């Protein structure tokens, strides 16, 4: 009986890849451990090893094929002792044709779909960013490229800027965000550190105090918990404690929030944590243009900045304006979609859900305005309150816990400063108040989704 | 209970460092510095200034003019004075923990500005917003003044990183105590400093007590100068109660670091006469222990004897003492009479830029 070789998932978030090269051909005998093919993900080229012994019976996906979905059968291996095993497989053999149809359905329960899939949205702003001049050429760019371009441009412009972190140089970035920087700027300015978050966060902070402009990459913000003392006690408080004498112009950046099926310790949104600290700037962009424009602004800022990215967005493609020096203002929210019936406020990956929900609601006659906060500290309450004044109803969407969150902050602001504009209580749509579970089904129900956003909007517009 | 004698290594040179475990290059054994009369007078003067300044700070604390935590440097004066005399103010960086008054005075920062910070006044070096533990002078390249035990070691490694990155010829000196020497980030910093050959002198001021816990009760390896060995950082143990022994070790360390050989670790055996902070009743050691150190190994008395041997008279020293008392008393008057920060200062300097 032929063994099906399927396109493997080579990272927690991989959904498809390129079958770059076959290293075997039909008729070749292979044994466990032989390299069969090279597969390119959006992060790296990986080798695909055989785990079964036998002969390559047929290759079903030619090399060079892009966009091969995880789980697609790419080849068949004929087992060596097929004949001996024949009796066992006799029953299904008479019907080989339907069998090839079946696997997808039959094996469906085995493919543990991540609950984060529902976070993935290709939604884009409907309203153009007023910061981009009309007629500007747009370039399709992934979020990770936009971040890299921002760093590269600022490094070209200012010798004091350098990048430090785990795997940022020779490995080209654990998530490929720093790809190519080592080649262009060399090991003096693109520095691999040991796994030592507290230590290198302190080294970066000290270097910033001495006048450099470090970009400290955390492989994820979950690991920055080991370093949070330097971010808060050393970086955020120094300017104040020194009476304005000692500055700390540093950027701490890396992925934040839930990734895919990585469990509780690797899935947390630290936005509310850092946004509660005076002395810090906290930025959490949604699309690639914002990622670029805001990271450039962060690097130029004279204050310490926590720059929260999202792994699930790294591979998404957005339009980025082709401008020599695209820098966005920090502390300014953006209206992503104009509407009159309700305001949906969100940031980071939640913006995609808000836009998707708004689109679906439009079909039902509810005209939602979507605001991307972009910066979590300082919070652009003026934009939020102006929208509330217009719509009188508000929902806050946050991929994170509900308690002491950005959502609860927005609710407080709406109550304190926008009370007279409210026609309904503001609702928050957040993750469940539990550590993120691993099991696919539980992960799925723990995370925010479009349906919950729609339900909340219907509640505040009294259409539920 | 630690015996007083443990506070005081053999007189004169530090005890010989054991033979190296490998044939890696090691720094030469430091020799006690041969100071000229003027140099020694300058050291004596600085140590005396620190002593009198701290005594005054203690008084002001007692009067309620200084609040919060206030950690005095009395007894440890030879360390900051001896080490920093080998550095160049404004070129070489210095960073320390919360017991920072002495290091600032030894780097030439005005006593008035420090005292006014201790009393929380607008004229203080941090405009009254930092306090005893959080003082800085970027102009002098004195980078604080940090309240979290051990944080200054990674920050100091960052200062050294900058010296190397900018190739400015400077070195960083990061002070920490025997207590901080058990913090994890110290070793994270050791690793990176040696890996990248950063120009940094790590200084453990071993005053025998981490708050109330003696070195022997907290450190499996109590010979702290060995703490860098597994990172290939050479260590030297130094008599921190003898300013000339300290200066001698500083010369060895600065030479090693400036030559691009990477970091070096100095363990300065010293002793604080006062409690950990002003609110420490110091029940963990006997009065006799403290008195024995004062009597036998006081760094200022030691320098005084050396000065007398060089022909300095009792009258000369009396004049100097008078001058120092005047400086300190003026600093205290300034600190008491200066206004507190304006209430609008509450909101200034949270951020540098406007958003």
UniProtKB/TrEMBL annotation, chain A:
MF-aspect GO terms: pyruvate dehydrogenase (acetyl-transferring) activity
Comp. bias intervals (Low complexity): 103-113
Annotated Lipoyl-binding domain residues: 2-78
Pfam family, one: Transketolase_C
Record-linked InterPro entries: 2-oxoA_DH_lipoyl-BS, Biotin_lipoyl, PDHB_mito-type, Single_hybrid_motif, THDP-binding, Transketo_C/PFOR_II, Transketolase-like_Pyr-bd, Transketolase_C
Positions of the UniProt region annotated as Disordered: 83-122
Cofactors required: thiamine diphosphate; (R)-lipoate
Reactions that this protein is recorded to catalyse: N(6)-[(R)-lipoyl]-L-lysyl-[protein] + pyruvate + H(+) = N(6)-[(R)-S(8)-acetyldihydrolipoyl]-L-lysyl-[protein] + CO2
Keyword terms: Lipoyl, Oxidoreductase, Pyruvate, Thiamine pyrophosphate
Name used for this protein in its record: Pyruvate dehydrogenase E1 component subunit beta
Organism of provenance: Sphingobium boeckii
Automatic annotation (TrEMBL), chain B:
Keywords: Oxidoreductase, Pyruvate, Thiamine pyrophosphate
Known partners and oligomeric status: Heterodimer of an alpha and a beta chain.
UniProt-listed PANTHER family: PYRUVATE DEHYDROGENASE E1 COMPONENT SUBUNIT ALPHA (PTHR11516:SF60), PYRUVATE DEHYDROGENASE E1 COMPONENT, ALPHA SUBUNIT BACTERIAL AND ORGANELLAR (PTHR11516)
Keyword Zinc found: no
Top class in the EC scheme: oxidoreductase
Limits of the Dehydrogenase E1 component domain: 46-342
Lineage of source species: Bacteria, Pseudomonadati, Pseudomonadota, Alphaproteobacteria, Sphingomonadales
Superkingdom of source: Bacteria
Bias (Low complexity) ranges: 1-22
One biological process term in Gene Ontology: pyruvate decarboxylation to acetyl-CoA
Source organism of the structure: Sphingobium boeckii
Role this protein plays: The pyruvate dehydrogenase complex catalyzes the overall conversion of pyruvate to acetyl-CoA and CO(2). It contains multiple copies of three enzymatic components: pyruvate dehydrogenase (E1), dihydrolipoamide acetyltransferase (E2) and lipoamide dehydrogenase (E3).
Protein name stated in the entry: Pyruvate dehydrogenase E1 component subunit alpha
Residue ranges, annotated region (Disordered): 1-31
Signal peptide: none
Pfam families: E1_dh
Assigned EC number: 1.2.4.1
Cofactor(s) required for function per UniProt: thiamine diphosphate
One Gene Ontology molecular-function label: pyruvate dehydrogenase (acetyl-transferring) activity
Catalytic activity: N(6)-[(R)-lipoyl]-L-lysyl-[protein] + pyruvate + H(+) = N(6)-[(R)-S(8)-acetyldihydrolipoyl]-L-lysyl-[protein] + CO2
